[in-house]
Structures are given as C-alpha cells and as structure tokens.
Amino acid sequence: MEEEDFLTPTDVKRFVYCPKIIYISRVLHLEERTTDYMEFGREKHDKSIIAPLIASLKASRVLEDVEMESQRLKMRGKIDYIIVTKFNEYVPAEIKWAEASQSVKRDHALQMATYSLLIEENFNTVVKRGAVYYLRSKNICVLSISEDLKKEAKSIIKKISEIIDNELEPEVKVIKSRCMNCGFKNYCLTF
Asked: Which of 13, 85, 105, 145 is the most exposed place for a label (fewest CB within 10 A)?
C-alpha cells in the first residue's frame, strides 16, 4: 500500500475542524502554510510536561513517539505518548499548542479516538480514556473514549476516504473565526 493511501489521525482532526481541508490537502495536494503552532508542535516535547499525568495514572511505563499502522483501517499515525498504567491500561496522550477550557476540543477528541483504534489493534487492548495537555493554558484534560466516539471516528474515516476516492469537494458551513487561523485559507473559496 502506498504511503499516500493511508489516512492519519491528523486527517480525522482536520475533517472535524473543516472537511474542506481534506479536499485541499488530499485531493488537490496543496500544502498547509506553516504556522507558529505547527513549528512548536514539531518540536520534541520533554516528558516532564506530562509528569503530573504520569503520576496520577500510576504509570508503569511511558512509550514515546509510537508509530502505528492499521491495514484494516488504512490508517497510520505517530502519537506523542502512550502511558501504560500499573493495571496495563493503555492511555494515549497528546500535547497541543492550544488553549482549552476544562474539556478536550471536539477535533482533538476524535483524533484521540482514532489513535485509540490504532492502539487497540497494535497492542491488542481496549482503550477507555485518553489525555490532552494544552500547553498554552497548562491544562491536562482527560477524556472518556467511548465505543460511540470510536464509531464516530470510524465513520469519519469512511467519509474522508469517500472525499479522496471520489475527489468530491465537500459543502461546508464553518464559523468564519475558524478560517482566520487556518493554514489552508489561501486555497479556500469559503473564506
């Protein structure tokens, strides 16, 4: 299978944020302009950032920059951390250069659900929760990863594949404030 045939958890996050991003990046093959957030996101994060989470989950080990693949889902991704608790629970954890209130943003929640699907297949386990550390607000948010959230992630994966396979530009109605910081806005007629 070709590298470009695989989807990523980032594709799921982008679709939830705005489906047109999938069309622009995967059908038109246009590159996102690099933002400060992206540059920071590419930097290696020190594990000490999530030390409170590691302690609260009573981790027995922490796996970093884990690359995973699913032939079944046609999905490939690399997660920042997988925290394995002393009870052998696998908890995906991502670091985001964003602000959040007390809960995980919807696009990030579905990205985490997608990582959970990859973890379940690659480690033969069931993922029940995940964590996102929002650097700008210094807030760790733990989310429940339900079967419904995983089903929704699978549904989104299917929709993304349809956009790519059929080269269909999706109709979107997004809040214009989202467009302001979008790295694809220069290519988008919605803006």
From this structure: 85
Domain CATH number, residue 83: 3.90.320.10
Cα 114 to Cα 13: distance, rounded to the nearest angstrom? 9
* Tally of domains in the chain: 1
Higher local confidence (pLDDT), 114 or 174 = 114
Domain holding 181, by residue range, is 3-187
- Give the three-state DSSP class for 59: strand
Q: Are 23 and 170 in contact, with CB atoms under 8 Å apart?
A: yes
| Per-residue model confidence as pLDDT tens digits over 20-52 | 999 999 999 998 876 555 555 555 567 888 898
The distance of Cα 158 from the centroid of its chain, to the nearest Å, equals: 16
What are the helix and strand counts (H, E) for the chain? Answer: 7, 5
Helices (H), the chain: 9-17, 20-22, 36-42, 51-56, 106-123, 147-166, 176-180
Length of the chain: 191
Task: Count CB atoms within 10 A of the CB of residue 143.
Answer: 17
Closest CA to 159 of 21, 4, 30: 21
Euclidean distance between CA atoms 72 and 162, whole angstroms:
16
Cβ neighbours for 144, distance < 8 A, ≥ 6 positions apart: 128, 129
Q: Are 159 and 19 in contact (CB under 8 A)?
A: yes
